[in-house]
Amino acid sequence: MSSIDDLLQNNSVNDVSTDDGKKSDTVLSVPVKKEEKEENNVEEKKEQKVEEKKDGLEGHFSSAEEKLDEKINIMKGKKHEDELKIKAQNIGLGHINLKGIPIPADVLTKIPFDFCKENSVICFYYVPHGKTRIAISENVIDLLPNIKSTLPEEFSKIEIEWFLTSKPSFEAGFKQYERIPKIKEPVRGVEINVEDFESMSNQVNSLQDIKEKIKGVSVTELVTLIVAAGIKTEASDIHIEAEVDGIKLRYRIDGVLHTAAVIDKDMWQQMISRIKLLAELKLNITSKPQDGRFSIFLTDDKLDVRLSTLPTAYGESVVMRLLRSKSIGLKFSDLGLTDKWMRMLTKQIKRPNGMIITTGPTGSGKTTTLYAVLNELNSSETKIITVEDPIEYELKGVNQSQVDAKRGYTFDKGLRSIVRQDPDIIMVGEMRDLETVDIALNAALTGHLVLSTLHTNDAAGAVPRFLAMGAKPYLLAPALNLVMAQRLIRKLCEKCKKPTELKPEIEEKVKQLVDNLPEEDKQKIDISQTQFYTSAGCSECNDLGYKGRIGIFEMFEMTPEIAQVILSNEVSEYKIRDIAKKDGMFAMVQDGIIKAAQGVTSIEEVFRMTE
Ligand SMILES: [Zn+2]
Asked: How many other CB atoms are there within 10 angstroms of residue 354's CB atom?
């Protein structure tokens, strides 16, 4: 389709005086391509059918009569447009018929969807230093002065030309919002007062403090306290669970759940109501799970809380996920990539096309890794679009869209519309179905760098998983550039970590894993000379002994040999792993041991996360 600019510049334009009395180019009728014309006729036919039903005349027309009626309807439509044109002239506006005119997404979204829906106005032409053109539907023309004064802020500084448009034309323009990836709407922070939050936050310094503080606070304060403590302890999730004899409050810190307190059951009804109000959930629904979210705007950060409720035998339980906008670990260099992996990943993300996959279970940090990659690639010359569920961090300059199954915006549909937006880089939150995989592989083969994640235990497992989902080997082999797997392991608290000796059987295991490293990596570790550390616990780390997490990785690049296996129809995880090992891959557990040898983590932690 040609762009609106082409249509406006190259097609028949008539002069109509506008607001300021000056003559200006105004579209009276824009010729559309043949197929679009036919489409329009089809639409008009449909409209006519509806009218027939209304009149109760359905079935009474012979086909010749129907044709005649069609013609009459088309003529009626034309006549109406002509009349509207004259009306527009009389009130000093332009006139436009938006049917069959594609409006670029970035122009359309100058006016947000909700504003368009509420006020029946559409932005259909926009250039940075020229006049902006906005169409207003005929049925709200009397409200024009009001609408003008409530337009989004950015319109206050630019010159606008107004165009009158018919109702069907407006509908045609309005429909175009459907194909735009839904960009997350800003959520306004309500209910939890910032001052209360920050004062509460100053009173809790550890999980131990919560137990003390909980006594004697009001329900409102209690909910604020619970969230503030989550931020203070750097928790990722807060679990509030109704149990037989109380409400258990637990925090997930660095991937591990810790019980902080048990709250009196009597408070629960009020607490859950307060929580539901915050997240705009329905108070009266208690037997079905609900999802919602709320935001808190802090002095120097914004906190989003996504929460879900679940009915259980003892009442509703709540899980809150804390999403910080100013997030740690989004820098490429903070991921914890050993030099070898850093070189490999850096090389692969600079390629203009192909697919990079990270694998691992939920909570293994794979999305964070992709965000770090996007941050690294983000520049004004690069167009990046994502479809995610959920958007975990907001990245400036990246078009992020949120899966919304209720509105039919799923991974595959989102991906389909993203590809039409001509991006350089696409991030798909997850590959869950063949449709998504197919579109992603095609995008990777047609000049896009595609980043995504898969749920498999290790890197080698990704290839058989793709094939099991139905991916075609002849698309997968040339599209796939790099597969990585990862886990997050907790870092020892720098304040209180202490040297330790490994038990003989553990030492033996560690030795074997080091012996199995590729020659070049083995040389860097001498087990007999290595001091390992363990956790002790201090006030700095909530007595947990660990603070913060870091990734351990394994990865392999596509080689002719791996491609050959994929095409052979005899793929197995073992085969892929064998070739990758031969090419220098070592396993996540070995990467973990390298980090333990550097004193970053403990051997127990490495085995806990990899066994
Ligand atoms: Zn400590």
From this structure: 20
Ligand 1 centroid to 606 CA: how many Å?
Answer: 18
Q: What is the mean pLDDT of residues 311-326?
A: 85
- Which DSSP category does 186 fall into? P
| Cα 81 from Cα 85, distance rounded (Å) | 6
Instruction: Report the pLDDT value the prediction gives residue 43, as an integer from 0 to 100.
Output: 43
Report yes or no on 506 lying in a domain: no
Given a cut of 70, whether residue 586 has pLDDT beyond it is yes
The predicted model gives 24-45 an average pLDDT of 39
Residue 98 CA to ligand 1 center (angstroms) comes to: 65
Whether 37 and 92 share a structural domain: yes
336 within some domain:
yes
Distance 605 CA to ligand 1 centre (A): 15
DSSP structure string for 40-107 = HHHHHHHHHHHHHHHHT-TT---HHHHHHHHHHHHHHHHHHHHHHHHHHHHTT-EE---TT----HHH
Tokens in use for 424? 């350089």
**Mean pLDDT of the residues in the chain:** 84
> Which domain range does residue 242 map to?
194-324
Same domain, 366 and 455: yes
The DSSP string of 410-459 is -HHHHHHHHHTT--SEEEES---SHHHHHHHHHHHHTT-EEEEEE--SSS
